[in-house]
Amino acid sequence: MPTGMTRPVSICLSPGWFIFPSQPNWAPFIPGRNFRKFPEFAAGGGCICIWTARLGYGLCDEDNDLDLPAIASLCDAFYIGGTKVGALFGEALVLRHEALKEDFRYIAKQKGGRLAKGRLLGIQFLELFRDGLYFRLGAHADRLAVMLRDFCRSRGLSLPFSSGTNQQFVTMPDSVLEELGRKYGFAYLRREDKTHSTVRFCMSWATREEDVRELMADIARLC
User: Fold this and answer.
1) Phi and psi (nearest 5°) for 115?
2) Cβ-contact 167, 145 below 8 angstroms
3) What DSSP string describes 105-129?
4) How far apart are the C-alpha atoms of 93 and 150, rounded to whole Å?
5) DSSP state, residue 29
6) pTM for the complete prediction?
7) Strand order through the sheet with 47-51
8) Are 153 and 159 in contact (CB under 8 A)?
9) pLDDT for 111-136, tens place per residue?
């Protein structure tokens, strides 16, 4: 885990909620073998919610062994992120536990977590799941990210995490990062030594292949 960052493994909320991230900002998508251990945390009672803001990219990971039905079977609630794959706003919350559904819409509205009129939100997910668009958008970003990952490996750059999702973590000389930062956006993750740092590159549903190839050309020129 990167130095100085909070590890969002689980958050316990009253009464007995356990929230797990499917793909934290600092790591790849959590594999199915780890997801299947989640129910053990609530064996003594409680509800499990899987935080899946980047679900589209995680499910399209080349090494992923989960699908939506499998995720639903492992928890009482999970949500499907929308903005990461092009939605204007919002997430879709899926409640599987019947006891959670009672009065939930009213409680959420009272706490400011639900729109009074949700038609526009619903239309977005209706279209995203029409003809597999949600997964095509995720696969597009993952493919470009993996292309960058494999290129960086071929250049001898260190990748502290093995990721098949839209997030790629690369260690580079600080001088190279300073130059790249004038042209590209990336997130600083951690310092590795006096002259090298690890950063996170993210692809999205809107990333163009020609832009990734231009980034690769600049890395080849600088490294």
Assistant:
1) -75, 145
2) yes
3) HHHHHHTT-S-S--HHHHHHHHHHT
4) 35
5) P
6) 0.80
7) 11-13, 17-21, 47-51, 77-81, 91-95
8) yes
9) 666 666 678 888 999 999 999 999 99
